[in-house]
Amino acid sequence: MLLLNILQFIIDAAASVLGGVLLLRFWMQAVRVRPPSSVAQFTFTLTDWLVKPLRRVLPGIGGYDWASLLGAFLVVVLASSLLFVLGADAQMVLLHALLRFLNWIIYGFMALLIIEAIFSWINPNAPLAPFVHALNEPLLRPVRKVIPPLGGLDLSVLVVLVLLQIAQLVLSRVFAGA
To answer: Is residue 40 helix, strand or coil?
Structure first.
């Protein structure tokens, strides 16, 4: 059983990295952010082997890179398939995969927000700061319209983090009932 847990951990770690990069690729394209060359090279090198064949099946529609999103979902389904080997039914595996996929999206947004907060405290002029800010802007803009900076302090990052955590709680309750 310990070896199975170790195998599951390794699969989950690799799938989380690959899935996270696929989701980043989708989000960069969705918000029309041009990544720095180092980020672009890493992202495309790690994901082209999966995205390019998927584009033949699912081309970009409406200006979105659906192949990257589908790739991330396929990665989470494959990572969750170990549950199927352990005796879970296919519907349970798909529900588990969907919950993990949605959690990856939420955790990705949280990570981007935390990185932006760290940049703003430590080095607002860091080379990646404008890139991270551009990725976060679609999340922060609606909150900034409702809650303007108070005394020069922008609380929008904190508010969005709290909202994402609430979304995660709601998702866990919804999927626990399924």
So the answer is: helix
The conformation of residue 123, written as its DSSP 8-state character, comes to -
| End-to-end Cα distance, the chain | 27
Cβ of 2: how many Cβ atoms within 10 Å?
Answer: 6
Q: What are phi and psi of 150, to 5 degrees?
A: -105, 115
> Which residues, 6+ apart, have CB-to-CB distance to 146 below 8 Å?
none
Q: What is the number of alpha carbons within 13 Å of residue 88 lying toward its C-beta?
A: 13
Domain boundaries in the chain? 2-176
Angstrom distance (rounded) from CA 121 to CA 139: 20
Interval 36-53: pLDDT, tens: 999 999 999 999 999 999
Predicted confidence (pLDDT) per residue in 92-104, tens digit? 889 999 999 999 9
Both tokens of 152, joined, read 């020069």
Q: What is the pTM assigned to this prediction?
A: 0.93
Rounded distance between C-alpha atoms, residue 47 and residue 84, angstroms = 26
